[in-house]
Amino acid sequence: LEGVGGELRSSGSIEAYSSTAGQSASVLIEAAYAKVDGMIRSGNGDGNGGAIRISGSDISEVGGTLDAIGTDGIGGDIAVEGEEISVGSTARIDASGATGGGKVRIGGGYQGNDSTLLNATNNRVESGSRIAADALETGDAGTVIVWSDMDTMFQGEISAQARGESGNGGFVEVSGKNRLEFAGDVSTAAKNGRTGTLLLDPADIEITSGAATVPTASTLSAAAITGALGANNVVISTNDGVETDAGDIFINEAISFNSGNNLSFLATRHIRANAEVQNEGAGDVTLVAGWDEVTGIAGSTAAGNPNNDDADFSAIIAGGGGTAFGVGGGSVFIGDGTQAAGIAVGSRYGNLNVAGDAVTVTGSSTANDGFAMLGYNTAHFVQDAGETVGGTTSMISVQLAGGDILLNGGSRTGAYAQVGHGGKDGSGILEADFDVDLGGGDIIVSGGTGTDAYAHIGHGGRNHIETDNAFIKVGDFDVRGLSDLTLRGGDGTRAYSQLGHGGHTGRDGKNGNFTLVGDGT
After folding, report:
1. Are strands 255-257 and 218-220 parallel, antiparallel or unpaired?
2. Which residues of 263-276 are buried (b: 16+ CB within 10 A; e: fewer)?
3. Burial (Cβ within 10 Å: 0-12, 13-18, ≥19) of residue 181
4. 3-class state of residue 303 by DSSP
């Protein structure tokens, strides 16, 4: 149905069905202003879902049902395009299938790079709306993309789940290239397979439940992130934006969770952690600064249709420093010296992956116990005697593009700076390998002026103990690509500097090799 240059409203029922093998049924609603309040269904004789496209050159509104369900096969292809898009609270958009999920694109394709669709300028998905690309009986779930070139507000529900006896969860991207407001529910869970991925990727983004302190940033609450981690691997990334955004991620609200799913932050410029990120479960925590916006996120086809894979840290590192990470001097900052509470970023049983041009960890000069730490803090999450952090397969990996690792203890009591699991007055058996490649940079470790304001690269920390076994089990400690190493003790009491496991009056490490390799200069 076409109403080119005018208005077209569909409030009744439209059904398209193809009984010819190899031919797909399709429905097109095309006008300057296209509105669907009724029901549109498209299916094929082979059991696969058909195709539905709502195309408003100016405005597209959906308040009804778009059904491309594959009753005996794979779900179909649903696309909604227009300059301004509104998906109302009564909308039901479904491209699920018995043997695999289909594809739903609202406002554009993956990262706005699908040339077959008109990208929306603004996109609004209201609370109560439901979008699905599930695999109902077997197979992998599908893909759902909600995109705009400017601002996206998402409050609805998306399901890209593998509900059957086999198959993996799907892929969901919700993004406004400039601004994103995300307050909806998404699940890419799998009953008997791998969990899928939720990608949130505006320009600058600030993790906070309050008003943004960065005027150009989108805001995302810690509650929204932890809620999403229950049913998704979550990737939060930035782009260069369309205004004055620099592509920074600001973590200004504590994110505490217990999940086997992974949480990844990929920033095109800096990551600034001013609050903790602590996973008590087995999921990885990944921070990549100076990211190139491409490497490590699946999306290889010409149409930009990603797989359901999580952010691939190994692929990012293989892409090279200054090319895939650390671009433009993008770096990771843990604490800024003004934090009012301790900051720790890490995972208890998963990997901690960090990449950028440089890493700076800074204890507080304004608050007691205002430590800064890359690792799992066992003092904050007190462990029982005999419990472990990490494991024989877990790792702390820091990969730099030629910049420095800088640790600075603060001027207040307990304002230490550390890279490693443990922390002051912590407990537990610590097991995780260290893998550090500076790419030609320096390590500068400086104790502070406050009591216990030490600076330490390694597991353990001041007075870290394991009450049952009286030692800390550790893994290998490998440092490569090092230009200069500087250790400076501070003026404060027990404000030591250290490279290696253990710590002042802590229990020494046991097991593992220590390797330090220069950059050849």
Report:
1. unpaired
2. bbbbbbbbbbbbbb
3. middle
4. coil
Identify which of 173, 182, 186 has the alpha carbon closest to the alpha carbon of residue 230. Answer: 186
3-state secondary structure of 375: coil
Amino acid (1-letter code) at residue 261: N
Q: What does the alpha-carbon distance between residue 148 and residue 134 come to, in Å, rounded to a whole number?
A: 23
- Residue linked to tokens 């999921």: 283
Averaged pLDDT, groups of 10, the chain, 521 residues long? 73 85 84 95 92 96 97 96 97 98 96 94 98 97 96 97 94 94 96 95 91 85 96 91 75 96 96 96 96 78 46 93 95 97 94 97 97 87 58 82 97 96 78 90 97 93 62 76 95 94 68 82 72
Residue 88 tokens read as: 């109302």
CB 48 within 8 A of CB 22: no
Using only C-alpha atoms, what is the Rg of the chain?
A: 25
**Nearest CA-CA partner of 109 in 80, 140, 130:** 80
Structure tokens at 187: 């699940």
Query: What is the rounded CA–CA span in Å between residue 510 and residue 367?
Result: 34
Q: How far is CA 459 from the centre of its chain?
A: 25
Quote the CA–CA distance of 477 and 437 in Å, as a whole number: 11
Q: Which amino acid is at 202?
A: P
Which of helix, strand or coil describes residue 327?
helix
Q: Yes or no: say if 170 and 133 are a contact pair by the CB < 8 Å rule.
A: yes
pTM: 0.94
